[in-house]
Design goal:
The chain is mainly α. It has 20 helices and four strands. It folds into two domains: about 240 residues, no CATH class; about 280 residues, no CATH class. A two-stranded antiparallel sheet has the order 1-2.
Length: about 575
């Protein structure tokens, strides 16, 4: 580990913290319907959208109506994206003449981008037309990101409101999120990426002559616009197969650093939105502090493991760390930092091959996802995932002192705790359940590139990534098979919506309750004690649930590595 490496990490954290209250204030005003600097320009557009769509912006919805509207929105989005992928061979903006996706792969891809997972069992530049990339994937990147944000805002309203039956209007929220938040951020970000060297063109692929006299085809396309929303919206799906390791997606150290900041920016800001909407910003900072503790711990372990290298490298006198699978222009520190950010934030973009990380270095991304990616998490999804753990933590605190637990003026009762546990338990069910099936089903085992604990980790990583709606891949696993396409689609669907529905039920339950004043017996939820208890609860739940799976995967591989064994 180096001083320069830690300077990058500290600078990254400082910028994210500085952006949090700025973006938080702006987003709070957007979702409360207040004036913003962009209102004079965008309010007429918003009004036209409501009129054309037949939406009454003053009419709010019950939590069940809000959820049903969201599900209908996704059903229609799935049908449109699936049809586009199956028909792309007959549609325009296809200079490379890409043919239709196979049915099982199109199903997996449509579910993937619908759920903000962006898992890709294909190479973008060799599979998709420009129209599919833009109208299909980039379009869904906006809508799936906006959906996560507005669901988090609906849950925040549940905590902030009292004695009401509504949590907002889904159609209004998603319009405002897209129009006032995502588009205004993506436009300048896209221009920045073009300046850094990322293509944005409808021109055909280019044939180039190499220095050796050979021919190479350079894939191009409208790349910058998709990279901007895939990072800001924590989508992660790459225009190219190599994702953020490709020089046309991430050409410079500056573009790499700004992309990392963009992954965390909106997710961190939502903690501030929570604090502002419940009337106490310290509540939001406490949640961000808990996220920060877990994040720094993960970065420290991952960076140390990659900088230290393996036992074999040490015995050969190779003290420069593990550079296998990493871009030289980024190095170990930026690669380890990117890996932890992308798996903490449910993004899935990668600038290094996680399959080539050391056993402990590769274990940290798996743990981040197994915890539900609540360390910042996907835009919106990270906050409502963390709030589920807050409910469990408050419940445990109430048991310790023998009184009904309270949080931001709301009593946390049996209904909320049951719904929180229902949402939390779906992740280990699908992560571990499908992994268990895959490692004994011969066609699935045949897709593993490695034997032993490393091959097992490849499968565990795949289903963990899909259930957590991350989308990054450990690598080494041939995922484009009927088994992995179909089981992956089910995993992504359950990982997204099985968490959303209980979370929305909690929002409706809390909104209908009256607020209670804090008393001398109320457990304080803005100080170090609460942060420590929240972090401890997360680690205990995660440890009890996933330690056996980690023990036979990355931990077993690490112990084997100490004896000189490789896989």
């Amino acid at each position: 580990m180096t001083l320069i490496g830690w300077t990058q990490i500290i600078l990254f954290c400082a910028i994210v913290i500085a952006l949090t209250p700025v973006l938080g204030l702006y987003m709070t005003r957007v979702f409360e319907g207040k004036s913003t600097p962009l209102s004079p320009l965008l309010r007429p557009v918003e009004t036209i959208i409501y009129r054309v769509s037949g939406i009454d912006p003053d009419r709010e919805q019950h939590w069940l109506s809000y959820t049903l509207a969201m599900l209908l929105f996704h059903v229609l989005g799935f049908a449109a994206l699936y049809a586009l992928l199956r028909l792309q061979g007959f549609l325009p903006f296809n200079p490379a003449e890409q043919s239709a996706m196979a049915p099982d792969l199109a199903l997996n891809t449509a579910i993937s981008f619908l759920t903000n997972t962006n898992w890709q069992n294909y190479g973008g530049e060799s599979t998709l037309s420009y129209l599919s990339q833009m109208l299909g994937l980039t379009h869904q990147n906006f809508l799936s990101a906006a959906t996560g944000i507005v669901l988090a805002v609906a849950l925040i309203r549940g905590f902030a409101r009292a004695s009401v039956s509504t949590v907002g209007n889904f159609w209004v929220d998603i319009t405002r999120c897209t129009l006032y938040v995502l588009l205004p951020l993506c436009i300048p970000f896209t221009l920045f990426l073009v300046w850094q060297g990322i293509p944005q063109t409808f021109g055909p692929y280019v044939d180039a002559t190499t220095l050796e006299g050979g021919k190479q085809t350079l894939a191009l396309g409208p790349v910058a616009s998709q990279v901007a929303i895939k990072m800001l919206g924590t989508n992660g799906g790459g225009f190219f197969n190599a994702n953020a390791a490709h020089p046309f997606e991430n050409p410079t150290a500056l573009s790499n650093f700004v992309q990392m900041i963009s992954i965390f920016a909106l997710g961190a800001a939502l903690t501030n939105v929570f604090g502002r909407m419940v009337g106490n910003q310290r509540q939001g900072w406490a949640i961000l502090a808990a996220m920060g503790v877990l994040f720094i711990a993960g970065v420290a372990v991952c960076y140390w493991a990659e900088a230290h290298g393996t036992q074999i490298m040490q015995s050969l006198g190779l003290s420069g760390g593990n550079m296998e699978g990493k871009e030289v222009r980024f190095g170990i520190a930026a690669s380890a930092l990117f890996a932890v950010i992308t798996t903490a934030a449910s993004c899935g973009a990668v600038n290094a091959m996680h399959d080539s990380f050391t056993a402990l270095g590769g274990m940290i991304p798996i743990i981040n996802m197994e915890l539900g990616e609540i360390v910042i998490g996907g835009v919106g999804a990270g906050l409502y995932g963390m709030l589920l753990f807050v409910i469990i933590t408050i419940f445990l605190a109430g048991l310790m002192v023998g009184r009904t637990p309270e949080y931001v003026g709301k009593k946390i009762e049996a209904r909320e705790v049951k719904m929180a546990m229902l949402a939390i338990l779906i992740l280990p069910l699908v992560m571990l359940g499908f992994t268990a099936i895959a490692v004994i089903y011969p066609p699935a085992v045949a897709s593993m590139a490695n034997a032993g604990p490393h091959g097992y980790s490849e499968v565990l990583y795949a289903f963990t990534s899909q259930a957590a709606n991350n989308g990054s891949a450990f690598g080494g696993l041939t995922g484009n098979t009927p088994f992995y396409n179909l089981t992956g689609a089910v995993t992504m669907f359950l990982g997204r919506f099985w968490m959303i529905i209980p979370a929305m039920a909690i929002a409706g339950s809390l909104a209908s309750k009256r607020s209670v004043a804090a008393t001398a017996g109320t457990f304080p939820t803005t100080g170090p004690l609460f942060v420590g208890l929240l972090v401890g609860t997360i680690l205990i739940v995660g440890g009890l649930t996933f330690f056996p799976a980690l023990a036979v995967g990355p931990l077993a591989e690490h112990l084997s590595m100490l004896t000189g064994a490789t896989y």
